[in-house]
Design brief:
Order of helices and strands: HHEEEEHEEEEEH
Structural class: alpha+beta
Radius of gyration: 19 Å
Number of helices: 4
Largest sheet: 9 strands, antiparallel
Helix content: 25-40%
Oligomer: single chain
Shape: globular
Strand order of the largest sheet: 1-2-3-4-9-8-7-6-5
């Protein structure tokens, strides 16, 4: 019995480090979402939620476990051009400290994730953390796939913390950076 316990204790670090790159749910979900980016999120687009003249919202069949909601949005910037984005509302809280802590946790979980898209070489998701403060009503940390090649050059992952009316809302977004900037 002592030998079994000793063997388990000695092998614990090995077992922990052998879990692989995607050891948390945020990374696993982002792997799926980013993998469907080139398809305009076609494989994760669920039921129609609402349709406006320039945008249409669909439920997302994929969302980070424990999140509030996830939506795929189609923007129609012109009759022949459509742009898609994925947004997952992770948390909302009246308490800034709680929201800021979660914002930092998610950034640290996602930063330096290894993302594999199809048969491509692996990418690393990396970016710059923007420290939230209670005085700022909006903060955003942006991450990009490295090395950026082909269609992944425009892919952007953004973690946002925003104060709306009475509460802080934190979201993770995946979208086409170049086209999103042109829409502003």
């Amino acid at each position: 019995m002592k030998n079994l316990i000793l063997a388990l204790i000695l092998s614990a670090p090995v077992l922990t480090s052998a879990q692989g790159v995607f050891t948390n749910n945020a990374n696993t979900t982002l792997q799926t979402v980013i993998g469907d980016y080139a398809n305009n999120f076609k494989n994760i687009r669920g039921n129609l939620l609402n349709q406006e003249p320039q945008s249409t919202n669909y439920t997302s069949t994929v969302q980070i476990p424990g999140s509030i909601s996830a939506v795929v949005t189609r923007y129609s910037s012109s009759p022949d051009k459509e742009i898609y984005s994925w947004k997952c509302l992770l948390t909302q809280s009246e308490d800034f400290e709680t929201a800021a802590r979660r914002y930092k946790e998610v950034y640290n979980q996602v930063r330096n994730s290894i993302i594999k898209i199809g048969g491509d070489k692996p990418y690393i998701l990396n970016g710059t953390f923007q420290e939230p403060t209670e005085r700022k009503r909006f903060v955003s940390s942006e991450l990009f796939l490295l090395p950026a090649t082909g269609s992944t050059r425009k892919l952007k992952v953004e973690i946002t913390l925003e104060f709306l009316v009475t509460e802080w809302k934190m979201s993770v977004l995946v979208y086409d950076q170049e086209d999103a900037m042109a829409m502003e």
